[in-house]
Amino acid sequence: MTLKLRNIGPKSAAWLRQVGLRTPEELAAVGAVGAYVKVRRAGFKPSLNLLYALEGALADCHWQDVPDVRRAELVQAAEAAIAQLPPPRGRPAAAPVTTTHHEAAGMAPGLALFDDERSPAAADD
Question: Rounded mean pLDDT of 56-75?
Fold first, then answer.
């Protein structure tokens, strides 16, 4: 069975399937915040609208009808849960980029082009 709920479009449904939430019962078991955090943890970049849509789907109302007080509670709970996630695996965040300029006249012999007459290898031929 595929997830077919109010407020859940094809992209959101695909994200939920990819994190193992395929039925309304599975979504209800983890809740809106739990599902949102699973999607974030999987590497997707959902907006807060997904969080509100999930809450609306569970409450069977349009996501824009989720009260502001409840939205604030959801955001606070999601931020707290996301803060507890381990840092992403893989490459660390990129360091600042630096540029090094070399003067052509002072170029080290090992940096010369292969066919360059100035290279030590060309002199040995």
Answer: 95
